């Protein structure tokens, strides 16, 4: 009893002491995937991170007397993670936007970039501005200012914006001919041009933006300390040395530093009117504006899911039939297919289908998404159908044979219909799962409901309304499917044929 | 007990041997069934009664011997050719121990399925014939019921109607009294006798000696895969 009381007391005292002590670590978040020159794994020592954001974080940690601890977070989730408290500071080429200024404690800008168009060399004489891209596909990173610029240009110039989840594949798709231009930061475009080539960067500036660090709204004192470190580094040339080392220093930066150090306000974006962006208007007005695009994305989700499920059912039936009735080599090959698909992640399969096979066959994004989902689900469906086929009592099959029915008739008239009824409930379950899994195809630039919601939430700076609307739309799609399946099950159970 | 090989029989089994792996199921079976006979195959469980019916119905491959069913010859050894099986199906109807009705189809649809799809009988004619058969066996009022809604006796009569729908001259019944009370057993016996009078040949596998004595014209007893 005494020992337990003492342990409790000791735990209480030690937690009180630790809570009072200043933290010794600066936790900062970034995304190293395609993150050069901001943050990336050192090619010579992959366990170490390098990049100018890494060096700025270390600079700040030193000023605070702390050490850095890196938190790996997907680029699109950095804002939400910072609000949640997963890290103190977020940096990864994060753009200053009205939405971030509303929802987060944003640092002063420490780098000025230009939004530039990258095009194939053959198109360079023809494409200089967004107006030259009418009817063409233009790629960028989702949830960025560049994406907002493209959405505006879609209305004004009739181009087709494509949202990617990383900054590498827009350029590979540009060289493959899947898109006609890429709108992104000059930092990213120049870096990609050095590493892969095959395109050219147009000199015209579409808009000007700034990189900032983001902190939780209640972390304003830490933000102010970060700003002090930045000011000092601007004055003593430390920032210049860092950016020169990473080959991104240019004449735009001294001008920015002069404005910042003079205390002049710096707008988040120059050359693009953000007054009508989601964060600048009321939430209800933003919802009203985004609702049509969410409904359009729902149509993409339902059409993609229906077509994929239809194909998955057909392929699944063929696989199951082959596994039950086929010759041993066919059975072995089909089993290997099912195990391969079930044993590897669907995201990997989608990447292989869209990017991996691009040298041999260049599938359009929607076709690759449809095929990827269908081939993946076909493996799972085939297992349902196979077990349903094998659940039909052998006596019924023998009875059908003694009556003179051929094997094909036994399958079509006796075994298949009963197996289908057994498979209906798990099939419905899978269809509802596919409605949701279809969100994975956003990695192939297909703009479906979840991706559109993510864009809405990023631009609005909140998940509450977009998340609620998204959930309501998914339910509106899945509940009728479940109701239809229940009705069919009841009907077939009751009505003889 | 029967072990002769007559040339006139509608079913002639000569030197039949069937093994599964190292296990002998049937050995040196010689049996002739005359047209219009009711023959009972009796014996303890596992003696091979049902297997003989399955061989005659073309559901089992056998290693040696010869089985001739109303002129259709099955030879031991290789798989039975599809054309032979097609010819055999017109000769033999089988009623399984657990009826094995198609669970997704009504009683009427169970009876119509083979005439329409395997024998090309127009649906209307097949439906008429189905109702006639169900009426003859006293279950026409259950024509629209699903198998799971039928009693054991009703399901058995529907199964007999289904087997007779394509009018085979030979009917095989596997343990037909297994799920019947004494009164239903009497009714079944009368029904089989009626079928015999129509000129059909019936081969009944049963461990019910009383039923065999009462309704079969003769009984063949099996023990350990041989005719005793």
Structure description:
The complex is a heterodimer of chains A (497) and B (228). Chain A is an alpha/beta fold and 497 residues long. Chain A folds into three domains: 24-108 and 214-269, D-Maltodextrin-Binding Protein, domain 2 (3-Layer(aba) Sandwich); 111-210, 3-Layer(aba) Sandwich (D-Maltodextrin-Binding Protein, domain 2), CATH 3.40.190.10; 283-494, MetI-like fold, CATH 1.10.3720.10. Helices cover 58% and strands 11% of the residues of chain A. Chain A has helices at 2-20, 52-64, 78-84, 98-103, 145-157, 169-176, 186-195, 220-235, 238-245, 252-261, 283-325, 328-342, 346-356, 365-391, 394-402, 407-437, 449-460, 464-494, and strands spanning 25-30, 40-41, 49-50, 67-72, 89-90, 105-106, 111-119, 137-141, 160-164, 181-185, 200-201, 207-211, 214-215. In chain A, the strands form four sheets. In chain A, strands 7, 8, 9, 10, 11 and 12 form a six-stranded mixed beta sheet that branches. A three-stranded parallel beta sheet of chain A has the order 4-1-5. Chain A has a two-stranded antiparallel ribbon with strand order 2-3. In chain A, strand 2 (40-41) and strand 3 (49-50) form a beta hairpin. The longest helix of chain A has 43 residues, at 283-325. Chain A is elongated and about 95 Å long. Chain B has two domains: 1-91 and 168-228, 3-Layer(aba) Sandwich (Rossmann fold), CATH 3.40.50; 101-167, no CATH class. Chain B is built from seven helices and ten strands. In chain B, the strands form two sheets. In chain B, strands 6-7-8-3-9-10 form a six-stranded mixed beta sheet, sandwiched between helices. In chain B, strands 2-1-4-5 form a four-stranded antiparallel beta sheet. In chain B, strand 1 and strand 2 form a beta hairpin. Chains A and B meet through helix 15 and helix 16 of A and strand 6, helix 3 and helix 5 of B.
């Amino acid at each position: 009893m005494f020992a337990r009381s003492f342990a409790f007391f000791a735990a209480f005292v030690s937690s009180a002491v630790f809570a009072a002590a200043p933290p010794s670590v600066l936790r900062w978040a970034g995304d190293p995937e395609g993150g050069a020159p901001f943050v990336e794994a050192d090619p010579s020592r992959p366990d170490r991170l390098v990049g100018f954001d890494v060096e700025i974080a270390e600079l700040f940690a030193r000023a605070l007397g702390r050490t850095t601890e890196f938190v790996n977070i997907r680029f699109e989730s950095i804002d939400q993670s910072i609000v949640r408290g997963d890290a103190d500071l977020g940096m990864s080429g994060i753009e200053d936007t009205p939405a971030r200024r509303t929802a987060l404690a944003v640092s002063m800008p420490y780098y000025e970039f230009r939004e530039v168009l990258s095009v194939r060399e053959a198109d360079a004489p023809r494409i200089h501005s967004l107006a030259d891209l009418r009817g063409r596909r233009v790629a960028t990173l989702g949830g960025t200012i560049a994406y907002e610029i493209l959405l505006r240009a879609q209305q004004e110039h009739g181009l087709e914006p494509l949202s990617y989840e990383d900054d590498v594949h827009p350029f590979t798709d540009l060289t493959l001919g899947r898109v006609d231009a890429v709108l992104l930061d000059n930092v990213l475009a120049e870096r990609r041009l050095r590493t892969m080539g095959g395109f050219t960067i147009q000199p015209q500036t579409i808009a000007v933006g700034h990189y900032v660090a983001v902190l939780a709204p209640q972390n304003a004192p830490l933000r102010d300390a970060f700003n002090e470190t930045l000011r000092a580094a601007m004055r003593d040339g430390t920032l210049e040395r860092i950016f020169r080392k990473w080959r991104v220093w240019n004449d735009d930066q001294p001008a920015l530093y002069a404005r910042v150090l003079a205390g002049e306000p710096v707008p988040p974006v120059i050359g693009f009117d953000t007054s009508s962006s989601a964060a600048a208007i009321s939430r209800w007005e933003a919802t009203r504006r985004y609702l049509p695009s969410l409904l359009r994305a729902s149509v993409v989700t339902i059409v993609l899911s229906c077509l994929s499920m239809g194909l998955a059912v057909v392929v699944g039936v063929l696989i199951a039939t082959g596994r039950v009735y086929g010759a041993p080599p066919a059975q072995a090959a089909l089993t290997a297919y099912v195990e391969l698909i079930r044993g590897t992640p669907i995201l990997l399969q989608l990447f292989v289908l869209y990017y991996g096979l691009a040298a041999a066959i260049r599938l359009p994004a929607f076709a690759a998404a449809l095929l990827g989902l269908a081939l993946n689900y076909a493996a799972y469906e085939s297992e349902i159908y196979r077990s349903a086929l094998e659940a039909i009592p052998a006596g019924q099959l023998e009875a059908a044979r003694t009556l003179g029915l051929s094997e094909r008739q036994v399958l079509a008239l006796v075994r298949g219909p009963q197996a289908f009824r057994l498979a209906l409930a798990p099939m419905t379950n899978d269809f509802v799962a596919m409605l949701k899994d279809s969100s994975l195809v956003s990695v192939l630039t297909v703009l479906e409901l979840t991706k559109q919601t993510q864009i809405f939430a990023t631009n609005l700076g909140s998940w509450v309304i977009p998340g609620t609307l998204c959930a309501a739309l998914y339910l509106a799609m899945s509940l009728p499917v479940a109701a239809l399946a229940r009705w069919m099950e009841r009907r077939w159970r009751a009505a003889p044929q | 007990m029967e072990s002769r090989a007559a040339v006139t029989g509608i079913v002639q089994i000569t030197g039949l041997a069937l093994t599964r792996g190292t296990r002998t199921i049937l050995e040196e079976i010689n049996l002739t069934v005359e047209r219009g006979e009711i023959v009972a195959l009796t014996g303890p469980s596992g003696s091979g009664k049902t297997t003989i019916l399955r061989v005659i119905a073309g559901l089992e491959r056998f290693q040696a011997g010869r089985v001739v069913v109303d002129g259709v010859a099955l030879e031991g050894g290789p798989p039975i050719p599809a054309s032979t099986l097609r010819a055999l199906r017109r000769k033999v109807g089988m009623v399984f121990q657990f009826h094995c009705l198609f669970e997704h189809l009504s009683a009427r649809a169970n009876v119509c399925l083979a005439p329409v799809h395997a024998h090309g009988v127009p649906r209307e004619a097949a439906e008429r014939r189905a109702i006639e058969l169900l009426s003859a066996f006293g279950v026409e009022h259950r024509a629209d019921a699903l198998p799971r809604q039928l009693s054991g006796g009703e399901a058995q009569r529907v199964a007999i109607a289904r087997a007779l729908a394509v009018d085979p001259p030979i009917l095989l019944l596997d343990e037909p009294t297994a799920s019947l009370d004494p009164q239903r057993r009497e009714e079944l016996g009368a029904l089989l006798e009626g079928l015999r009078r129509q000129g059909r040949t019936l081969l009944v596998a049963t461990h019910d000696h009383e039923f065999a004595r009462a309704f079969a014209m003769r009984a063949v007893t099996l023990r350990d895969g041989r005719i005793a």
